[in-house]
Each structure stands twice: as C-alpha cells, then as structure tokens.
Design brief:
alpha/beta; four-stranded parallel β-sheet; globular; binds adenosine monophosphate
Length: 503
Amino acid sequence: MTANLFDILQSGITDAQAAAIETPKGERISYADLIARTGRMANALVSLGVAPGDRVAAQVEKSVEAIILYLAAVRAGAVFLPLNTGYTPAEIDYFIGDATPAVFVCDPARADALKDAADRAGAKIVTLDAGGQGSLTDAAADASPDFATVPREADDLAALLYTSGTTGRSKGAMLTHGNLVSNTDALREAWRYTADDVLIHALPIFHTHGLFVATNVTLFSGASMIFLPKFDPDRILGLMDRATVLMGVPTFYVRLLQDDRLDRDRTAHMRLFISGSAPLLAETHREWQARTGHAILERYGMTETNMNASNPYDGDRIAGTVGMPLPGVDIIVTDPETGAELPRDQIGMIEVRGPNVFKGYWQMPEKTAAELRENGFFITGDLGKFDERGYLHIVGRGKDLIITGGYNVYPKEIESEIDALPGVVESAVIGLPHHDFGEGVTAVVVPAAPDALSEADVLAALDGRLAKFKQPKRVVFVDELPRNTMGKVQKNLLRDRFGNLYA
Ligand code: AMP
C-alpha cells in the first residue's frame, strides 16, 4: 500500500457490501460499487490524457458522480480542483488559467460558455450534470472497473483548493495526501466516528467542509452518508430518525431552529451535531441544546489547514469557543507584530502547525513564505485567544480588526453584546473610514422586526457595558447580513455599502 489516500481508504474497508452513499432517489452505492465506479472513472480520466500530477478541475453540481470524480482523480495520482458552482465564466477563466488542468469538467449547460477558457488553459472539456449524466459519465461507462491505483507519497498533492479570497486574487492551497489522511484520522478519533455512523450530507462539495471533512471522515470509517443535493430542512428533519451525525454551517442550525418539528423526539436517534466554517452564535448553541438536548460541537478549520480545533466529544462543548487543538495539531497565539507567543487570555494571531497544514500556495512562493513560517507554523489570519481552560476563542479575521483612535477593537466582543439585546437577531461590527478616528466602529444590526429598536436604543444599551472607544459611533439596520455559500458574513460588502457613513 502507498500513501495515496485512495489506497488507504480502500485498505480500511471491512464490509464491501455496506452502503457508502445513499441518495434521496433511493440509490444505494456500496463500497464495492464505489471502488468499481472510481476505477471506471479513473480509466476514463487517463484516456482523456490525465497523467499523475496533472490537475483535474471540476465546476459541477453535487452528485454521487462528482464524489466519484474526486476519488478517481486522486486514484489516478492527479490533483483534484473543485470550483464553486457560483463562479462566473470570467472567474473560471482565472482559476483554470492559473492551475492549467489537463481536464476541466463542467455542467453541459455551461460547456459553450467555458470552452474558450478551457482551450486557453490547454484543458480538455468534458461534462457532468446535476443528475450525474454527461460526456464524462459516458466515457466512464465504457471503461473497465479495474484500475491500479497510482502510488503516491504522503507529500504528493491530492487537491488544489482556491481560498474564497475577499481581498485580492484567490490563492490555490496545495493539499497533500498526507494532509488529508492525517486530518481524517484526527477527526475520526476526536468525534468517535465508526462504521455504524450515518451522516446527513447536505453541504456543498467544492469546499473543504463538505468534500474532505464530511466525505473523507465517513468513507474512511466505513460509515455511510445520505447525500442531499443541498440544504433542505424538510429532508434533514425526515432523516434524523435513521441518521447519527449532521455536519453543517451555522446557518443550517439557525434555519432548523425555525422549524417547530425540531425537538427531543425528532433528534433522539442522532449522536452528534457538528458546526463549522463560520462562527456559531452562542445563542444558537443554547437554543439548540434547550430544544433537542444536544450540545452542538463546534470546530475550527480552514482551506489551508484542514481542521485545527474541536470542542470535546466527552466534556463541555462551550458555546462561542472552538475547543482544543485536534490530536497532532499545535496551535499558538502570537503577537501580530513580533511573532512572540502570547500567554493565555491575550488576544493575538492564531498560528497552526501539524501534518494537516498545507504545502503552500500554488505558484506563489512569496505569499507562501509570508504566511508559512520556516518552523512550520502557518499564520492563519484569524485572531483569537486561549482561555484558562484551554479552549480557543476566535475573535475575527485580522483584516476585520478595527483600529479606532489608535485602539484595537475586536468586532466579536461588540457583536456579542449587541446580539444579546432584546429585538436583535444578529449583528456585524465593522470599521469604516472616519475623519477623526481613522476608523469608526460601526454596528450593522438585523432587528427582529422593523421597529424592534432604534439606533439610540442600541447605543444606550451599550453605554456602560463597553469602554467608550469600543462603542459604535453609528448603528445601521439591515434586513439580513450578506453571507457566502459557507455562511460567512461578507464584511467587505458591508464596508463597501456603508463606506461613506462618516464622509
Ligand atoms: P475557509 O478557508 O473558507 O474554510 O475559511 C476559513 C475561515 O473560516 C477561518 O480562517 C475562520 O476565519 C473561519 N472559521 C472557520 N470555522 C470557524 C468557527 N468555528 N468559528 C469562527 N470562524 C470560523
């Protein structure tokens, strides 16, 4: 056996007839089927000219075939490059121009629009639709299921995932077989995953969360996953009596809480609810526990590092924290200026080291050198602190830090105060250009009802609770916060929208 993640996955299978994937349409794909279908797909990729080390890019809807494509690419020794289905042709042009894949897989409906970009990148274009049909599936259907998995070293690339990058061009994070396998092992241990688990898989598969965390953890455990095309509260609630695990972004939990059917009975068969990719509001955590009796387990990770920290399986899962470092992962908090390690309770830059940390940014040696230290620590860009019990708290992205009149203000602290006010659904605190202070602390608030509260109400409630310099200079109201597909609040859009507030 080699370090190819597919080899390791395959060698761990003990019951080849067990279901690996089920779909709402009643399809049942056993582990034996999965091996055979990835073999056919790997042969199809090779016949399209894919050689070990080549990139295989895919902008496709979620389907069983799309997961088979990921595994087949890895099996063929290629580097899988999933692309957000929301990207426009101009964005795709950049990604495939940068990554120069040998093959680019897209939806048949977009093939004409993307053909030129594929040609420019030197990629052969093939198709796969949401139902799993297309020229790629046709090629795989004619191919043999027998395929000798290409040997790989732990340090060889398995995937290239572009960061969502709200400023500047997104960067391709190079993830190795060793990164993915070690993180899968750490998560299986941390979350007590076994072959008896049944995951409700409702996440997109172009992102580390749905592709690696959800899929690898399940398949490496010999467990099964029920593959939903997208987040669908009805279906999720309907599956809870036979599933054991749900992995979601915080929005999943907020939306499920809006459904009266969610209660203790409905969730009695479930073992674990996991949240990540964006901060889970402490209030959501508490409400979920009150309604279902389950404490949501929040974890923290990113494209470049896979998963870093998790609340404990046994022990307190503390709302508003992301828990402790995963087995094998080192996390330190450092002074952003000097890089010196800070003691507990002091806020600084979160740095991560371990077998989970990526190899660097694709063709960007300077960016890699700027963020990945020689001693192996990756500078995450997230600010946070460890508390006295050793739980990590994230206070926001470094670029969201507000500097007002020379003082640092961490948005999370202000947001937590505002979120706790009656009549507030949620808030985002941002810094906006201010003639006097450099940046003015500004609260963007989603009220429970249009007249639930006024700017003066919010300001009066915060007065006395927060130091003067932390108090917002202005409060603006919006119907909802802009979020990306992974549930992250897009503060850059808010900064653009309200940029002239103090002008
Ligand atoms: P991505 O690379 O798209 O997975 O985004 C990674 C970023 O999401 C991290 O650097 C954090 O800023 C944020 N993130 C992920 N998980 C959490 C969490 N549990 N709480 C707060 N922020 C999170």
